[in-house]
Queue: 2 jobs
Job 1
Amino acid sequence: MAALSRIPKTSIKSLSSCISRSFSITKLNSEIDLKVPSFLSHNSLLLRQEPKEGNIQWVFLGCPGVGKGTYASRLSNFLGVPHIATGDLVREELNSSGPLASQLKETVNQGKLVSDEIIISLLSKRLQAGEAKGESGFILDGFPRTIRQAEILEGVTDIDLVVNLKLREEALLAKCLGRRICVECGRNYNIACIDIKGENGNPGIYMDPLPAPPQCAPKLIQRADDTEEVVKERLRIYYEKSQPVEEFYRSRGKLLEFDLPGGIPESWPKLLEALNLDHEDKCSAAA
Ligand SMILES: Nc1ncnc2c1ncn2[C@@H]1O[C@H](COP(=O)(O)OP(=O)(O)O)[C@@H](O)[C@H]1O
């Protein structure tokens, strides 16, 4: 795997506590002077983790429905690093009987972003649990989603690579509306068949549905936030709050833009190629 040798490693061990501590300092700073971002503060610089050799610390960006979860999860299996999706952490929490459940349900079902404080706390807990199991490295999906989250992350560790997945908006909406999830195993499927003709210089795009296997087919549900109205709101919020994160990483030379050429069979090998991962590995991972 050619790409791996280039990737520096950071200990996840203290990253979780660093993120929470850095966040507390951000809060303190913002109470004192809103104009000073946390990562510039003297205190939070002291918390910064130095990279070690070998780990993968990647981030997946992209609009709702683009397939961040699908490709991040495939790469996580391929590379043997955990896939951490903050959307999954939020859904676990809102389905629990915890104190945040009803507040989260309301926010998510309106297509709004959860507060940075809650997201950082959920992410820190997930990283701590991973640390206890000896995990190292990560592929983050759905985080960072605001410039503030990106600054906090940048202040505590080195992200090696940020993959920005892109797809035409008509396809995004159709994919969200067609998404189905198995309540038992949590896998995502899609009943939509996307066939968008090329126009005004934009290439057409064709994506087959992704049918559920017989064991999942009777247990499919739709996410409550995958309605047309809420998806449109999620897209609006993405353009307003999350798209600036693309520029944040572009200006740091970390952003890899990837236009999805079609469905998984077409896109997966091309993504591996773009990531400079070897053909041999490609065949075994695609199996
Ligand atoms: N980093 C984050 N910051 C704030 N809210 C988040 C974050 N990650 C997930 N969420 C919340 O969880 C919801 C679902 O997230 P996700 O599954 O990643 O959705 P999407 O399909 O829109 O990318 C979001 O609409 C938002 O309410």
Job 2
Amino acid sequence: MSLYCGIGCRRKSFWYFRLLSTYVTKTRYLFELKEDDDACKKAQQTGAFYLFHSLAPLLQKSGHQYQAPRHSLLELERLLAKFGQDTQRIEDSVLIGCSEQHEAWFALDLGLNSSSSINASLEKPEMETELKGSFTELRKALFQLNTKDASLLTTAQALLRWHDAHQFCSRSGQPTKKNMAGSKRVCPSNKIIYYPQMAPVVITLVSDGTRCLLARQSSFPKGMYSALAGFCDIGESLEEAVRREVAEEVGLEVERLQYSASQHWPFPNSSLMIACHATVQPGQTEIQVNLKELEAAGWFSHDEVATALRKNNPYTQQQYGTFWLPPKLAIAHQLIKEWVEKPPCSTLPA
Ligand SMILES: NC(=O)c1ccc[n+]([C@@H]2O[C@H](COP(=O)([O-])OP(=O)(O)OC[C@H]3O[C@@H](n4cnc5c(N)ncnc54)[C@H](O)[C@@H]3O)[C@@H](O)[C@H]2O)c1
Ligand SMILES: [Mg+2]
């Protein structure tokens, strides 16, 4: 974008830089909080907390929608005092973002065993009554949250889960210590630093030019089909992982692939989903399903998929068991929608 290409464009550039500037200051602020424990502790004073219990976020329901309430530090301290807990537990909280006005947002789990305080996990029903909400399994609530809350809560849950599972150094066996923001853990005895991890997963929508290939695992809800997914093996490139996964799961060789988008996916652990379109030659479409990985796989026509997308409501479809697709928030849905709307041009060799 140029600053010298006429009035209309200059106006656009002005807004572009204003937006960029807000984003940059926010990013730099979060970076500072991750690096500086004192700054992070100070940010808690004016910050807000999302609460969890055993990795289930506190949600309040209004109609068919869920929303995630935030609590100030003062409210949180009062709550802990009411339940006979010390405020040391607040040190277990993790930084998950901030508002444009730099109100820092944290997440704290009241159900997991605390590494900062000797207090046991807090009783769920009593807390729910006090907080006028319910700790709801994230998978159940995710599709009824707005996109912003869904993204914040999945990040929060992933980070809380990682800390819960990485309390000891795998080299020394000593307890590790989290920094204030929760962006890392350090072993005090040998100074090894542990950072939160995500596993890269490729998700591929294979097409033969007119149809696309969808598959299901036996663990999927009844009737749901999705694109092929698989964890990357160590040492693999994205292209190699796509080629191997498609060969392993359905016995086909893809010849071209095109990157589409990526998404953080919290289930069952943190994955970075990397979504691609891929093609096979029209004459080489015979599927050999690997029954150790999949329950079924098949080619679906453009019409079949477009119809399923139009009436895609997991709640009713699941009940009647008809063919249906992953919900909107899943990157598989975006990939399938992209294919229905505009079959991608094949550009990159696999
Ligand atoms: N967001 C979406 O749209 C979407 C759609 C489909 C799948 N997914 C996710 O993709 C992930 C991978 O899909 P899959 O189950 O078909 O993978 P997969 O085909 O690689 O099969 C899973 C198996 O891979 C092995 N494995 C290798 N590395 C692993 C690791 N780091 N963690 C766990 N298991 C590992 C295990 O034996 C496991 O049973 C799943 O966790 C699923 O939740 C997301
Ligand atoms: Mg798979």
